[in-house]
């Protein structure tokens, strides 16, 4: 298995002067540092690819042992095209995550155990900015976007694509508009019956994307208080 971290965006909503994945959670421990630390502990993950764009040199200097993919069009594209750039270099199972998501390491056990494509979700009420989902009658993801009617909860930004689904997923990522999130390609495939995407309930584990100051403060508080 390979891992991909999407870290090319500008993170304008948080108002940071550095790439959002370099936001400090505790002293020198940034979001990206903690993600990499948890992924490196997994023996089944061979390589970590980081898709960079905005102020890429800072990230590359801080993590010289990782593999980097440059999205030169980061200012006008979204996560679909960043992910596609990384997947062009991969032929194995892939776990990928947004570069602004903080998560308990135990979540990786949940995501990697099934031998199929998976999507980490919760059961909750959602606001307009969150990526939402609902399910088919047999319990797989049907719709996954910011505009889902009667959503069951939020998709949390950590996903696995099985290598058997990889070619179709790459083709769909190439087809969607450059401004789309990667979830658009997933949804196109689920609705067409070309992908069975298993929802993985986060349960009582902690996982939160850092979009706004309130998210950052919640993550920092959790990280300070959790047992290490």
Task: Explain this structure.
The chain is α/β, with parallel strands linked by helices and 228 residues long. The chain has one domain: Spore Coat Polysaccharide Biosynthesis Protein SpsA, Chain A. Helices cover 30% and strands 25% of the residues. It contains seven helices and 13 strands. It has helices at 31-40, 56-62, 79-87, 107-112, 163-175, 182-191, 213-225; strands at residues 2-7, 24-26, 29-30, 48-52, 67-70, 94-98, 101-103, 118-121, 132-135, 141-145, 153-161, 198-201, 207-209. The strands form three sheets. Strands 1, 4, 5, 6, 8, 9, 10, 11 and 12 form a nine-stranded mixed beta sheet that branches. The chain has a two-stranded antiparallel sheet with strand order 2-3. Helix 3 packs across helix 6. The model has no long low-confidence stretch (mean pLDDT 94).
